[in-house]
Specification:
about 625 residues, Immunoglobulin-like, alpha+beta, Galactose-bd-like_sf, globular, TIM Barrel, 34 strands, Jelly Rolls, binds beta-D-glucopyranuronic acid, EC 3.2.1.31, glycoprotein
Length: about 625
């Protein structure tokens, strides 16, 4: 469980789309020395951004990536320290009381390594983008005579062989070809390494004794469901806990007490994926109340958790949700858009969910890192099944399989599982994408990461996504579901659509014969530049993208009757990458453009996904009216 902005009336978000700044300062770039990866973890000096840093000062919106906000190409490709700063006034009631409330500063995510000060006092540092972190700032702000709270953030987007994702700095020493101190950041993944404070920053309070974590798992038979819960409290040993579970009409359907227990729900409304039931994404609401006597005072904390009742099982040929076979007909996505880069963008998020429903997609993979909690909330509510992927993308260098990297990967899985473990939409964890899993150390590495993830959450299957040869892959023995990426007639035999039936059939047969585990085609696709046409189809045209999809689909149609349990197109939408000779303003394998307009391939996929949904015994809710998502 991660407490977030929705829970507390005392919550005081820093204004979204406002600059984190002290007048008139916003974001500053660090010293060039800070760019050197050898100084990556050298602490920047505490204190204000304005006092300590060189470089231009820019008004910078939060949340957003900083890269595409200005006209300055050096900021677009900047590697190193940047500084954000903002002053906020805290309500006086947050600063007083006996005991005074606990004041927390929370970041939804910041890319990549962050150090945070409040009023010049360091309160937290955090390694890794894509996941939240927070600091208890009570002692700092409550000790101050002034309700003004100065928040200063130093952020460094340098990737090293031991970060997730990994990267390395290449120094170009040849003075005849490169300017002095020239370097580039090399990464082995195919998306632009946007950086900045990507998700909301909020301040919230809890009582001094508070609910720190809740874990729920659910099981069900036809007429009874059981919700196992575990609640942990911090700040008091003498406390009482009471729980009540309400249905969507607000009726209490089960109650419980104590830190560990089970709720019994008669005739439950199960959480079903979109297109598998006429009422997908059914969420109960679990209210957990804590009362604790601290000195003379009785403290009360309340946390309300949306809760979906569903089960997930994997057999050698099937993926079962609530005991029924589930076929993933979905997409791979990115957090990516014009101008804001990877910054959270509500209109874009809601647009994407409307497109997913239009498409008839019932699932996506969070390629290649955990997505914003706001996105995950909508997956829970709309019944979109999620393969929740860690930022383990581009693990290619031998040194990235060593103990230092492994320990960091385990820590990242802990953060991810803690954040998303209670989400019914999350049906599987993916620990990595396309690692060099044929290397000998990959065996120990993936065995350990997968075992650790299963220990953290025994209720879900675990996988990683591979593009290695079936006979050489050293991580595959440890996964529950084989997820394979392939680009026949694109990266292999470019232009030769006729090889697909043979090669794709062999791919599936080989993997299945070796492992007898169900298989997901976790990526396939072709770039297309919208508006480029040719007949017969040629690469990069809309016709070629359509034709390639159709070739894949005819093989998938045979294999989904056997052991193939899903297909996820690469990609939902075009997205930005590093510049390169194979990228025309980014990766163009989207079936939608970056601005979310359909290419011809979107209609091919839409026909297919609705056909698959209608074939099953499920009841597809055809969208006939518009409902608005209000938050
Ligand atoms: C796959 C990667 C994905 C890339 C895609 C491509 O998993 O991140 O964007 O190839 O090249 O191998 O389009």
């Amino acid at each position: 469980m991660q407490r977030n902005r929705a829970e507390s009336p005392l919550l005081c978000p820093l204004p979204p789309a406002d600059a984190l700044q002290t007048s008139p300062h916003g974001l500053r770039q660090g010293r060039p020395a800070g760019r050197d990866q050898r100084h990556h973890h050298q602490q920047p000096q505490p204190g204000g951004a304005a006092e300590h840093q060189t470089g231009p000062v820019i008004d910078m919106p939060v949340p957003a990536s900083f890269n595409d906000i200005t006209q300055d190409p050096s900021l677009e490709n900047y590697i190193g320290w940047v500084w954000y700063e903002k002053e906020v006034l805290l309500p006086l009631r947050w600063l007083q009381g006996d005991p005074a409330p606990r004041v927390v500063l929370r970041f939804g995510s910041a890319h990549y390594y962050s150090v945070v000060w409040v009023n010049g006092v360091q309160v937290v540092e955090h390694e890794g983008g894509h996941l939240p972190f927070e600091a208890d700032i009570s002692s700092v702000v409550q000790g101050s005579p002034d309700p003004l709270c100065r928040i200063t953030v130093a952020l460094n987007n340098t990737l090293t062989p031991h970060t997730l994702p990994p990267g390395s700095i290449q120094y170009m020493a040849d003075k005849s070809r490169y300017p002095k101190n020239y370097f580039v950041q090399d990464t082995k993944f195919d998306f632009f390494n946007y950086a900045g404070i990507h998700r909301p920053v909020v301040l919230y309070t809890t009582p001094a004794a508070y609910i720190d974590d809740i874990t729920v798992t659910t099981t069900s038979s036809d007429s009874v469901a059981r919700v196992q819960y575990q609640v942990s409290v911090v700040g008091s040993t003498a406390n009482s806990l009471s729980l009540s579970l309400r249905d969507q009409e607000g009726k209490v359907v089960a109650t419980g007490d104590g830190a560990v227990g089970e709720l019994k729900v008669l005739n439950p409304n199960l959480w079903w994926p979109y297109l598998m039931h006429e009422n997908p994404g059914y969420l109960y609401s679990l209210e957990v109340k804590m009362q604790a006597q601290v000195g003379e005072v009785l403290l009360e904390d309340v946390y309300t958790l949306p809760l979906g009742i569903r089960t997930v099982h994997v057999t050698s040929t099937q993926f079962l949700i609530n005991g029924r076979p589930f076929y993933f007909h979905g997409v791979n996505k990115h957090e990516d858009a014009d101008i804001r880069g990877k910054g959270l963008d509500w209109p874009l998020i809601v647009k994407d969910f409307n497109l997913l429903r239009w498409l008839g997609a019932n699932s996506f993979r969070t390629s290649h890192y955990p997505y914003a909690e706001e996105i995950m909330d909508l997956c829970d509510a709309y019944g979109i099944a999620v393969i929740d992927e860690s930022p383990g993308v581009g693990i290619k260098l031998p040194e990235s399989f060593g103990n230092k990297s492994l320990q960091h990967h385990l820590a990242v899985m802990e953060e991810l599982v803690r954040r998303d473990k209670n989400r019914p939409s999350v049906v599987m964890w993916s620990v990595a994408n396309e690692p060099a899993s044929e290397l000998p150390p990959a065996a120990h590495y993936f065995k350990t990461v997968i075992a650790h993830t299963k220990a953290l959450d025994p209720s879900r299957p675990v996988t990683f996504v591979t593009d290695a040869n079936y006979a050489l892959d050293r991580g595959a023995p440890y996964v529950d579901v084989i997820c394979v990426n392939s680009y026949f007639s694109w990266y292999h035999d470019p232009g030769h659509l006729e090889v697909i039936p043979l090669q794709l059939t062999a791919q599936f047969d080989n993997w299945y014969k070796t492992y007898q585990k169900p298989i997901i085609q976790s990526e396939y696709g072709a770039d297309s530049v919208p508006g480029l046409h040719s007949d017969p189809p040629m690469m990069f045209t809309e016709e070629y993208q359509q034709a390639m999809l159709r070739e894949y689909h005819s093989v998938l149609d045979k294999k989904r009757k056997e052991y193939v349990i899903g297909e996820l197109i690469w990609n939902f939408a075009d997205f930005m990458t590093n510049q390169g000779t194979t990228r025309v303003l980014g990766n163009k394998k989207g079936i939608f453009t970056r601005q979310r307009q359909p290419k011809a391939a979107a209609f091919v996929l839409r026909d297919r996904y609705w056909k698959i949904a209608n074939e099953s015994s499920c009841l597809p809710p055809v969208i006939t009216s518009h409902s608005f998502y209000l938050k």
